[in-house]
């Protein structure tokens, strides 16, 4: 069974006011003091962000337990210095980002200017194991039309710098300002994948292979494909559902490749439209159907993902749990809907943040 690992970025905030706090270094120092050998938590681009990574897991319940444990540990370390953590993909409140002390991050700020300073956004990256680069590239080529559906599922950034954006996932619009971000063309082979990555680095526009910010890519560090479209999810249960769907999608694509089935190629221009639609509306209105690329109600499209990956979900023992989780998500909504609901009830973005701190740490 394929293993899955999750990386989540969390927002560090004042637990009373909701204002982002640039205290990542202090939180990491506290974590290192408690566990000198810890390799779970890392700093990110800005001091208001904290990242953690789970270990590879084959059982999704165990993965969920680890996500919850990591969130609670992050909250404990932050709480010891008077800070809170929130699984928010963007800050609802105005913030002036504080760049982390790091030569790489300094290079980004000098190279890209204002877009770098706008990247105080928190994502969720899911790694799924593959047997080889050949299998990995075959998977990347086949999952492309479904990535916007995954983005809509995770959408959790409707507010930005004190304003409602009109988007369910505004983080994705900010992230796509990087020159290498977004959907990709077909690669066809690992040789072509690596040739294209090398050509991108050779332009000098990006620093290195780590800056190849495709929506899905081969990991440069692990034998995995890395799916990078998700906002950090407000609820840990949504993160587990997301990872479950990603693994099933990877397994389904690998089976199609082994069976010699042809690759669908809607083209990058159509994938960009589907991705925009997903970021704009999340699960609230139509998505572009991955097969027909025509509008279709989001709940129907999400259920069609369950159907498409059904054999893989059954093989891994995840089918019933995934079906229940999808129906619960459609009933209660993703993070974007929950944040908007909180704002409608309270009229205060500060209350939105402080309630999301409670949800994250619960």
From TrEMBL:
GO terms for molecular function: ATP binding; glutamate-cysteine ligase activity. It catalyses: L-cysteine + L-glutamate + ATP = gamma-L-glutamyl-L-cysteine + ADP + phosphate + H(+). InterPro entries: GCL_type2/YbdK_subfam (IPR050141), GCS2 (IPR006336), Gln_synth/guanido_kin_cat_dom (IPR014746), YbdK (IPR011793). HAMAP family: Glu_cys_ligase_2. Belongs to the glutamate--cysteine ligase type 2 family. YbdK subfamily. GO terms for biological process: modified amino acid biosynthetic process. This is Putative glutamate--cysteine ligase 2. ATP-dependent carboxylate-amine ligase which exhibits weak glutamate--cysteine ligase activity. It comes from Streptomyces capoamus. Gene3D superfamilies: 3.30.590.20. Its EC number is 6.3.2.2. Keywords: ATP-binding, Ligase, Nucleotide-binding. It is an enzyme of class 6 (ligase).
């Amino acid at each position: 069974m394929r293993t899955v690992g999750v990386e989540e970025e969390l927002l560090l905030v004042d637990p009373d006011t909701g204002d982002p706090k640039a205290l990542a270094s202090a939180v990491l120092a506290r974590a290192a003091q408690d566990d000198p050998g810890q390799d779970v938590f890392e700093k990110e681009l800005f001091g208001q962000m904290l990242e953690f990574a789970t270990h590879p897991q084959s059982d999704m319940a165990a993965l969920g337990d680890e996500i919850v444990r990591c969130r609670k540990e992050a909250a404990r370390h932050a709480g010891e210095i008077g800070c809170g953590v929130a699984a928010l993909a963007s800050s609802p409140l105005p913030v002036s980002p504080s760049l982390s002390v790091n030569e790489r991050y300094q290079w980004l700020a000098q190279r890209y200017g204002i877009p770098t300073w706008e990247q105080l956004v928190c994502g969720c990256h899911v790694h799924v194991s593959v047997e080889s680069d050949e299998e990995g590239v075959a998977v990347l080529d086949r999952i492309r039309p479904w990535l916007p559906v995954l983005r809509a599922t995770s959408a959790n950034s409707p507010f930005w710098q004190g304003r409602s954006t009109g988007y369910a996932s505004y983080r994705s619009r900010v992230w796509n300002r990087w020159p290498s971000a977004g959907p990709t063309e077909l690669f066809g082979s690992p040789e072509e994948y690596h040739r294209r990555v090398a050509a991108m680095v050779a332009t000098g526009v990006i620093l290195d292979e780590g800056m190849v910010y495709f929506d899905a890519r081969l990991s440069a560090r692990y034998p995995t494909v890395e799916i990078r479209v998700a906002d950090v999810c407000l609820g840990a249960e949504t993160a587990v559902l997301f990872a479950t769907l990603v693994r099933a999608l990877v397994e389904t694509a690998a089976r199609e490749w082994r069976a010699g089935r042809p690759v669908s190629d809607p083209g990058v221009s159509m994938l960009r439209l589907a991705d925009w639609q997903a970021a704009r509306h999340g699960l609230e209105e139509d998505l572009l159907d991955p097969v027909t690329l025509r509008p279709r109600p989001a709940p129907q499209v999400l259920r069609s993902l369950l159907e498409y990956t059904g054999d893989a979900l059954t093989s891994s023992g995840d089918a019933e749990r995934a079906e229940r989780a999808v129906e619960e998500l459609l009933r209660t909504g993703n993070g974007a809907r929950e944040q908007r609901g909180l704002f409608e009830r309270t009229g205060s973005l500060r209350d939105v943040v402080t309630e999301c701190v409670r949800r994250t740490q619960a």
